[in-house]
Amino acid sequence: MKHISPQILLLSLLAAFPPLSTDMYLAAIPLLMEQWNQPLVMVNLTLVAFFITYCGFLLVYGPLSDKYGRRPPLLAGILVYIVACLACAASQGVEVMILARALQGAGAAAASAIVFAISKDLYGGVARQRVFIQIGVIVAAAPVIAPVIGGWMIALFSWRWVFLLQVVMALIALAGVWRMEEPLREKNQARVLQSFVSYLRLLMNGRYMVLVCILSIIDIPVFAFIAGSSDLYITRLGYDERQFGYFFAFNAMAFILAPLTFSRLARLYSTQRLLPFAFCGMFCSALFLLCSAIPMPWRLTLPMFFVTFCFSFCRPGGSNLILEQIDQDAGAASSFMVFAFFITGSLAMWLFSLDWGDKLLTLSLMSVVPVLTALLLWFGCTGFLRRAKAVN
Question: pTM of the predicted model, to two decimals?
Answer without folding.
Answer: 0.68
